[in-house]
């Protein structure tokens, strides 16, 4: 999964641990792996101005820990991920753009209160290309929709499991028939994780969840989804091409199926606390 996905999942998981269990990991920020390449992560309100075409940004929290405290003080009950699939993108299908910053569908964080929700959109920008340790990114979460109806998406974790299993079986079969053993092994490894009672965290981020608050099946699904993420730019699964139109069509179908299953998995796991 991308760094954007990882950060969204971690903010949801660790934020809920603070809101619901009072548990704040002292070094969550900046030590968590999802902030590894970030020099700043802040939270702002985005307000339209009558006197300017540019919206006014007001800093609400200077880092994730401050944001968690602000949410709790304001009476936030829980944090959820929100995802809206991009439809008819003119520059290509969503799974082909997902590895790029700003590509793919719309992911937001929903903060849920007693009678309403606020929605936070993430904005990533390179602000220091020469930063030590590769900390080139500055991230702002802007509250763009305030006091809106609650979504509280709750995809069934077992349905997400089944969908991911089926998608992995289909794409493994395709990779095998195309004599792509390295890719087939990636998908086989991801599928094997789904039946592992001690699911290996084979993807880059080892610390996305506060594990004790998530079921075994949730941890299996997220580990498999993270392992199966192959959607990037040059040199990735998206970069493959085949000899016939039929083969390319099949590749697109199984790729889209896996991409949809991974998104469903991320949403189901993150929102299962």
Walk me through what this model shows.
- The chain has helices at residues 3-21, 28-31, 64-73, 94-97, 157-177, 181-193, 216-228, 245-270; strands spanning 38-47, 56-61, 78-84, 106-112, 117-126, 137-148.
- It is 40% helix and 19% strand.
- The protein contains eight helices and six strands.
- Helix 5 (157-177) runs antiparallel to helix 6, helix 5 (157-177) packs parallel to helix 7 and helix 6 packs antiparallel against helix 7.
- The model has no long low-confidence stretch (mean pLDDT 91).
- It has two domains: 3-148, Nuclear Transport Factor 2, Chain: A, CATH 3.10.450; 157-270, no CATH class.
- It has a six-stranded mixed sheet.
- The chain is of the alpha+beta class and 273 residues long.
- The two termini are 20 Å apart.
Order of strands in the sheet with most strands: 2-1-6-5-4-3
Number of strands: 6
**Which architecture name of the largest domain does CATH use?**
Roll
* Proportion in helices: 40-55%
Low-confidence stretches: none
Approximately what portion of the residues adopt beta-strand conformation? Answer: 15-25%
Largest sheet: 6 strands, mixed
Shape: globular
**Protein structure class:** alpha+beta
| Count of domains | 2
Using the coordinates shown, work out and report the CATH topology of the largest domain.
Answer: Nuclear Transport Factor 2, Chain: A
Distance between the termini: 20 Å
Q: State the CATH class of the largest domain.
A: Alpha Beta
Question: Radius of gyration in whole Å, from Cα?
Answer: 19 Å
Order of helices and strands: HHEEHEHEEEHHHH
| Average of the residue pLDDT scores | 91
């Amino acid at each position: 999964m991308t760094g954007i996905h990882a950060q969204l999942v971690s903010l949801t998981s660790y934020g809920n641990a603070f809101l619901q269990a009072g548990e704040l990991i002292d070094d969550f920020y900046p030590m968590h792996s999802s902030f590894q390449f970030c020099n700043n992560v802040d939270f702002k309100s985005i307000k339209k101005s009558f006197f300017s075409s540019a919206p006014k940004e007001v800093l609400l929290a200077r880092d994730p820990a401050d944001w968690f405290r602000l949410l709790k003080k304001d009476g936030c009950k829980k944090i959820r991920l929100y995802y809206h699939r991009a439809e008819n993108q003119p520059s290509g299908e969503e799974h082909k753009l997902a590895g790029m910053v700003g590509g793919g569908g719309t992911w937001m964080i929903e903060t849920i209160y007693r009678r309403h929700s606020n929605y936070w959109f993430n904005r990533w920008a390179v602000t220091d290309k020469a930063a030590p340790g590769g900390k080139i990114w500055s991230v702002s979460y802007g509250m763009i929709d305030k006091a809106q109806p609650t979504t509280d998406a709750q995809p069934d974790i077992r349905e997400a499991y089944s969908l991911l299993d089926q998608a992995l079986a289909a794409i493994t079969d395709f990779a095998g028939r195309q004599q792509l053993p390295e890719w087939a092994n990636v998908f086989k490894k991801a599928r094997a994780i789904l039946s592992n009672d001690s699911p290996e965290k084979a993807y880059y981020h080892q610390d996305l969840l506060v594990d004790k608050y998530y079921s075994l099946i949730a941890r299996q699904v997220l580990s498999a989804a993270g392992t199966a993420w192959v959607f990037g730019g040059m040199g990735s699964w998206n970069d493959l091409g085949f000899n016939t139109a039929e083969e390319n069509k099949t590749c697109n179908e199984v790729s889209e199926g896996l991409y949809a299953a991974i998104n469903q998995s991320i949403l189901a796991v993150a929102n299962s606390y």
